[in-house]
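call fold(seq) -> tokens
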Amino acid sequence: MFRLTHRIARALRRSKLRKFGATVSSDLQSSSNFFCGDARGLTCGPGVFISDGAKLLIGGKDQPGKLTLGSNVFINHYAVIDCHLKIELGSNVLVGPHAYIGDFDHQLEADGSITGIGKSAEIIIGEHVWIGANATILKGVNIGKGAIVAAGAVVTKDVPAGAIVGGVPAHVIGNRSIKSYAA
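ret:
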């Protein structure tokens, strides 16, 4: 009975997303109501799983936003993807718990006050990328195929394919030995 109830709830969430314009596969799995924003900007490939408490925030005040999740993407508990312009996650991407991916910043006014949405720049995350717990990916970043972002890292610059990055700000701390991920 428990499994049937969850299956029905997931089907209802998929149906609701489609009703509001999202493109989602029939096997999208989510543990809770995760979505906020303009569903028309969401595209999910097959095998996507979104854990309990995760948030997909799509669209800004005057921008529609476009979030694309490739096949077999796993978004862990309480991760936030905040998309005002464009964010793409390739296939087989793992996003750790409490990770934050945001393609915009706030405006700093001449008087020092911080207001509204500032500049946006797209984020592209390649296939087979692992983003660790509590990592932050900031606007304008491209993360290459097979890269690993260590837990707690703050990524402010592009990450080469196969690189392992960590720290604040993130820098290369190693490379994966898998040849197909090398640049």
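The chain has a mean pLDDT of 86.
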